[in-house]
Amino acid sequence: MKNRRVLAAAVVLAAATALTACASDGGASGNNAGGNNASNCTNTIPKKNLPVVTMWGWYPNMQLVVDNFNKQNNEVQVCWTNVGQGSDEYDKFQTAISAGTGAPDVIMIEMDRIPTFQIQNALVDIKKYGFDTVKGDYSEGAWKDVSVGDAVYGVPVDGGPLAMIYRKDIFDKYDITPPKTWDEYEQAAQKVKDAGGPLFGDFAANVSALTMALQIQKGASPFTYDPAQPTSIGVKLNDQASKDVLDYWARLAKKGLVGTQDQFTPEYISGVINGKYATYISAAWAPGYLTGAGVGKGEDSGKFAVAPLPQWDAGNPVQVNWGGSAFSVTSQAKNPELAAKVAYGLYADKESLTHGWTNQIIFPLNLKALNDPEFVNLKVEFFGGQQANKEVYVPAANAYKGVTYSPFGQYYFDAMTKQVSAIIEGSVTGAQAADRLQEDVVSYAKEQGFTVQ
């Protein structure tokens, strides 16, 4: 049973091709680097008499973060290597897990991947290694995203509270007020279309994590999983809330109110730049991504603003998240307690956090940053000087309650992509797609040896 689950996780990881929320710097990497070998550091270790913890990570400012940690710490030093971004790193980690050697002491992992590695006993529960000293530095929702059951398998660094980015020029031209509900969103989209305006948004097949988040906002709970019962999992992908969300976007697409272009593509970015879409439903990391992709420059400079995510029920608002990464301690760590100190301390000092959010590398989850007046009151250039953090992103992050991810999240996301593509093609309704998704994922879970509740 256990071997079947481990094998299944390895297969899923090998096939994973999902985009990550954080951009790579394209710097120091190497197929032969890393693991527990502290001689392969990208950085220079200044205090050579101290014990060394090895780590893998791909944040663009990782060099600065590691240097800051090593400079300020007199108990342990970090040997950092970038072995690749996202799936490239995960493939190497999976190889090390299978071999029983070659993994670093600390590893950067996207939060939705934590259960995939936890079920293989590849990560350490860090609750027993000083968790109480840092527990208050992060919100309840942030901790839930890095937890499996009552155990904590990572330190949350960055997240992606969702919001609605919009074109001020388009809203002004068609006399649109930022919609507070999804019903108002549809009404505004129809108004713009009737007036001969552009598409109001986009329903893409390749953003399954976003679709999941919007379903959770409506009340869905896709997975229930407790590591105390590692062979049992709850899968509920075709409940009424999930069907309602898929039917909603299917209706908007069929009426021509929103597009169906894959996101994170040159074609989509070109459309954003040229005013093809009035809104962009995305996460707090989106301004950094869009800026890097050339949006908000030249003729479209100063045309973007952001508003809170529309709600399904205005009287009971629910905030959701897309993306985010953490530092986890691996089960191959030579000294788990020292490794936990590194995980807790990396990207937790003011200089590193400030550099991260100032340069739009991360949306910080550390409350020392979220509550910092400099961060809260920042006038965001991309949004024409709007205080986006104060008005939108910080309240959304503070209200976020977290989610339960599954041990086979990538399979689920891929299966969701397949069903949304079928909706876009017109071969199924949203409700039918949800039923097909439920059947597909339940079948897969059973194949991997799970009992599905």
Task: Give the SSE map.
Layout (H helix, E strand, L loop, with lengths): L1 H14 L36 E5 L5 H11 L4 E5 L5 H13 L6 E5 L3 H5 L12 H4 L5 H6 L1 E2 L2 E2 L2 E13 H6 L8 H13 L6 E2 L5 H11 L4 E3 L6 E4 L4 H15 L3 E2 L6 H8 L5 E5 L2 H7 L11 E5 L12 E9 L6 H10 L4 H9 L8 H4 L2 H4 L11 H12 L9 H17 L4 H18 L3 E2 L1
Parallel strand pairs: 1-2, 1-3, 7-10, 9-14
Antiparallel strand pairs: 3-13, 4-5, 6-11, 6-12, 6-13, 8-9
Helical coverage, percent range: 40-55%
Counting DSSP E segments of at least 2 residues, the number of strands comes to 14
Structural class: alpha/beta
Which architecture of the largest domain would the CATH scheme give at its second level? Answer: 3-Layer(aba) Sandwich
- The CATH topology name of the largest domain reads D-Maltodextrin-Binding Protein, domain 2
Number of structural units classed as domains: 2
What is the CATH class designation of the largest domain?
Answer: Alpha Beta
| Ends apart, CA distance between termini | 18 Å
Major sheet: 7 strands, mixed
Instruction: Give the CATH superfamily of the largest domain.
Output: Periplasmic binding protein-like II
Low-confidence segments, given as residue ranges, are: 1-34
Signal peptide: 1-23
Keywords: Signal, Sugar transport, Transport
Pfam families: SBP_bac_1
Protein name: Multiple sugar transport system substrate-binding protein
Describe the structure concisely.
By secondary structure, the chain is of the alpha/beta class. It has 19 helices and 14 strands.
What descriptive keywords fit this protein?
D-Maltodextrin-Binding Protein, domain 2, alpha/beta, 19 helices, 453 residues
